[in-house]
Automatic annotation (TrEMBL):
Belongs to the class I-like SAM-binding methyltransferase superfamily. RsmB/NOP family. PANTHER family: NOP2 YEAST -RELATED NOL1/NOP2/FMU SUN DOMAIN-CONTAINING, RIBOSOMAL RNA SMALL SUBUNIT METHYLTRANSFERASE B-RELATED. Coiled coil: none annotated. The active site is at residue 399. InterPro entries: MeTrfase_RsmB-F_NOP2_cat (IPR049560), MeTrfase_RsmB-F_NOP2_dom (IPR001678), RCMT (IPR023267), RsmB-like_ferredoxin (IPR054728), SAM-dependent_MTases_sf (IPR029063). It comes from Thauera terpenica 58Eu. Gene3D superfamilies: Sun protein, domain 3, Vaccinia Virus protein VP39. This is SAM-dependent methyltransferase. Residues 185-462 form the SAM-dependent MTase RsmB/NOP-type domain. Signal peptide: none annotated. S-adenosyl-L-methionine binds at residues 299, 346. Residues 27-40 have a biased composition (Polar residues). The lineage of its organism: Bacteria, Pseudomonadati, Pseudomonadota, Betaproteobacteria, Rhodocyclales. GO terms for molecular function: RNA binding; RNA methyltransferase activity.
Length: 465
């Protein structure tokens, strides 16, 4: 991507897209910084031509859907270190906004609209810019087009169009929700996610973390669901904060924290996090075990496991053992058959519950990808189940919203494995003070719980099986 200099600067903001470090994206304020002698003046609330072009180029790269949007943005920011925090925030927010409302924007701008047109349509209708803001950015002909977009009215459209979802996804969701439910869910998924922290209970409890943050002027509230969660009021930069560096907290969605509570590991146990990735849940489980017993972090991705290492060092945990496996039936897995007190399968999935953070996923996923995931999930769950000792617990979880990846996988597993029975997720949570009315299986939804979308089932291997 071509490098361009921008001038939308001044106020300190930041944008990081890694899942293991504090994020994240900024809300654009539509207020330009003071014009310097080297930059042309822009109307109040508008942006410079350079920033417009840069945003358009990145949007073009993202809309090829070759790579995840957060990877494209991270790479661009790495390669353009001169870009200020405010400009980064503006670019990231704008690209994400267009991805969220892509279907609507294509209806306004034309199905084959270029990134440039989509961007102009977003500023005109999504941001509601006045015509004067387009003067330095668009030609006279384009400004006529912008005026027509501003005036356009659309018919009601199909459910998928109204929900800004691909047809196949809206159809699948109709298997679980009614039309109003799909629309409410889609609206929840189109909002930006808040920033949640998890107190590392090995070092301090949630209330102590909250007090320390507030002492330093960071506005925060206790999480509504997880007793380990702190929800920040804004999105301050925390990557260099002493409490982050000393492992007092990690960034973790509050909904994701409930999965750790469903595993409910105890001191001295042998616990396996079968799909540990960069260890978001491993670290939580390790702290709940008070760094005792043995906690194996399996994953097939060397790159993801490598990201766990610095997090382990910060966390102060000494009970975590990362293990790279080739596949779910690796000999390293087989050695653990029947030995584990608890196994978590945080399965690879379509990730559709995380659309607040990864809005491009809805355009990148497909029915074929769902089928592929279901086959993988089924195989991983069966392999992981073999590790559970009689009387031990198995938790299957995804951040998908699709019944195919959730209930259907668990139902098929239970039908084929009579030695396992279902436990009530609600009861497991209630016993830990989380008074969520979730029923037998945990279902978290952004528009209802203000968390990412999660599903989890708690299973137990019967004692004499
Ligand atoms: C949803 S992510 C896990 C996220 C992680 N638990 C966390 O909290 O950060 C799913 C993980 O499953 C891993 N995976 C994929 N196939 C696997 C397999 N056959 N066995 C074990 N892990 C696998 C992926 O590499 C990925 O890291």
């Amino acid at each position: 991507m071509q490098k361009t200099k921008s001038s939308r600067t001044t106020k300190r903001m930041r944008s990081s897209t890694s899942d293991s470090s504090p994020p994240a994206r900024n809300r654009p304020t539509n207020k330009s910084g003071p014009a310097s002698s080297s930059t042309p003046a822009v109307p109040e609330g508008a942006i410079t031509r350079a920033l417009f072009i840069q945003t358009m180029q990145i949007l073009g790269a993202v809309l090829s859907f070759e790579f995840p949007a957060d990877a494209v943005l991270s790479r661009h920011f790495r390669e353009n270190r001169e870009l200020g925090h405010r400009d980064r925030g503006f670019i990231a927010e704008t690209v994400y906004a267009v991805l969220r409302r892509l279907r609507w924007l294509r209806r306004l701008a034309g199905e084959d609209a270029t990134p440039r047109k989509l961007l102009l349509a977003w500023f005109a209708r999504g941001e509601g810019w006045p015509m004067r803001n387009f003067e330095g950015l668009a030609s006279a002909t384009e400004r006529d087009w912008v005026a027509s977009v501003k005036a356009a009215t659309l018919d009601e459209g199909s459910l998928a169009e109204r929900a800004d979802l691909p047809d196949w996804l809206a159809e699948r969701l109709l298997g679980t929700f009614d039309e109003a439910g799909v629309l409410a869910l889609a609206q929840g998924l189109n909002r930006a996610a808040p920033l949640d922290l998890r107190a590392n209970v090995l070092k301090l409890d949630r209330d102590a973390l909250l007090a320390r943050l507030r002492e330093e002027g960071i506005a925060a509230e206790p999480g509504a669901l997880s007793p380990q969660a702190v929800r920040l009021v804004g999105k301050p930069a925390l990557q260099k904060h002493p409490l982050f560096l000393d492992g007092s907290f990690e960034v973790q969605d509050e909904g994701s924290q409930l999965l750790g509570l469903l595993v409910q590991p105890r001191r001295g146990e042998l616990v396996i996090d079968f799909c540990a990735g960069a260890g978001g849940k491993t670290l939580q489980l390790g702290a709940m075990m008070r760094s005792s017993g043995r906690l194996y972090a399996f994953d097939v991705s060397e790159k993801r496991l490598a990201k766990l290492k610095p997090r382990m060092a910060r966390s102060g945990l000494s009970n975590v053992h990362p293990v790279l496996i080739a596949h779910e039936n690796d000999a390293k897995v087989k050695r653990m058959v029947g030995k584990a007190d608890r196994v978590l399968v945080d399965a690879p999935c379509t990730g559709l519950g995380t659309l607040r953070r990864n809005p491009d996923l809805k355009w990148r996923q497909s029915p074929a990808a769902v089928d592929e995931m279901v086959a993988k999930q089924t195989a991983i769950l069966a392999a992981a189940a073999r590790l559970v000792r009689p009387g031990g617990r198995l938790v299957y979880a995804t951040c998908s919203l699709l019944a195919e990846e959730n209930d259907a996988v668990v139902d098929a597993f239970l039908a084929a494995h009579p030695q396992f029975r279902s436990l009530s997720a609600q009861e497991v949570l209630h016993k830990q003070g989380v008074m969520l009315e979730t029923g037998e299986r945990l279902r978290l939804l952004p528009h209802l719980h203000d968390t990412d979308g999660f599903f989890a089932a708690v299973l137990e291997r019967v004692a004499d099986a």
